[in-house]
Amino acid sequence: MRTIQIEASSNHYPVRVGAGLRHQLGQWINKGDYSRVLLVADEAVVAYYSNDCMKALENIVPVHLYAVPSGEASKSFSEYEKILQKALAVGLDRKSCMIALGGGMIGDLAGFAAASYMRGVGFIQIPTTLLAHDSSVGGKVAINLEHEKNMVGAFYQPDGVYYDIETLQTLPEHEWRSGFAEVIKHGIIGDSSLYHDLRNAFPSLDAVRSDADLALTIERAIRVKAHVVAQDETETGVRAYLNFGHTLAHALESMTNFEMSHGDAVSIGMRFALRMSRKLTGTQVQEKDWREWFDGLGFPRLSPHLDVCDMLKKMKKDKKSTSGQINMVLLEEIGRVCLRSVDDEMIIEELKAFQREEQA
Ligand SMILES: NC(=O)c1ccc[n+]([C@@H]2O[C@H](COP(=O)([O-])OP(=O)(O)OC[C@H]3O[C@@H](n4cnc5c(N)ncnc54)[C@H](O)[C@@H]3O)[C@@H](O)[C@H]2O)c1
Ligand SMILES: [Zn+2]
């Protein structure tokens, strides 16, 4: 088992990564820590893993289960309200805890419920997707408003994250790919040796799925995020670097009604950010290199059918845009990024050329 200590200013907590951790929760959650637990689980993982979690806690604290329908649509006010109602019905009090069992959707939803129920109760994450190596660390929790992502939320650090990598065995292939985009991102923005190791070891998704050192790979990616969060918990500065590739990615997710997975969108967004970086920072990294690698991993290319002006409009709506000016995270060199404001005209021109070249 590997442990990464997160040193956010509002809370310090361990992220543990290893095989079978769901059976060992009783080692870290002690009698008296919490009066009662509500296990908020993604419906898709309930049958696989919720019994194991409940069994591990049965002699320690009363545990209740609440299952949430799978999918981004559940990050809604109605699901949020149902969790709070369930918490009230089973008698959660201020000393209680909500445990999120699932991917980033459940982590964000249950985390926001935990942050607001009785002005905040205990919160623990048991991530079950590769993408959740990112979402479960750092304390951003939120639900969506209408079609706008993460519009209502909080910064609310968990008391602990127990990442049982055995749960990834049931994850569909496209979800592995989605999560791996964020692993790559962490290498690009903050750890050049991680980046080069990924580049060498994982030419295909099969290689990722059969990684004999998966816990180590995940640990290294989490360390990049942990380092950023420790410097800037509430995103007033360097935390924006985590958004590498995300300005275009959020636009693509929204334009495809979230049919495109987050990681697929981020993979395209990172390649576009590299294109902009080559113009603006003069980075030496080759676009062709990433395109070949990402093709091998099965990431999609930018569709010729999406309108470039719509993309720009959506990019301007990004929470990181200020007064209508698009701010993009750009690559200086592997392991180092910067934030730059970029003109609309340049974005349009480059998006058009990028889209054209995607078909070549
Ligand atoms: N808070 C943050 O800092 C942060 C960062 C990145 C992303 N996010 C959020 O995370 C969400 C995306 O996370 P995600 O990609 O984990 O999505 P997700 O939680 O929706 O999970 C993806 C799919 O995998 C299924 N699933 C989950 N675990 C499984 C398992 N072990 N076996 C089989 N199926 C399983 C789910 O039912 C779902 O269909 C988005 O809502 C995004 O906004 C938050
Ligand atoms: Zn992301």
Would you kindly provide a written description of the structure presented here, covering whatever features stand out?
The chain is of the alpha/beta class and 360 residues long. It folds into two domains: 2-170, Rossmann fold (3-Layer(aba) Sandwich), CATH 3.40.50; 173-358, Dehydroquinate synthase-like - alpha domain (Dehydroquinate synthase-like, alpha domain, Up-down Bundle). It contains 13 helices and eleven strands. It has helices at 43-57, 77-89, 104-116, 132-135, 173-190, 192-201, 205-209, 214-231, 246-255, 262-280, 287-297, 308-317, 344-358; strands spanning 2-7, 12-18, 37-42, 63-68, 97-102, 122-127, 140-145, 148-155, 160-164, 326-333, 336-342. The chain has a seven-stranded mixed sheet with strand order 1-2-9-6-5-3-4, with helices on both faces. Strand 3, helix 1 (43-57) and strand 4 (63-68) form a beta-alpha-beta unit. It is globular. 46% of the residues are buried. Bound molecules: nicotinamide-adenine-dinucleotide and zinc ion. Residues 134, 182, 246, 262, 266 line the site of zinc ion.
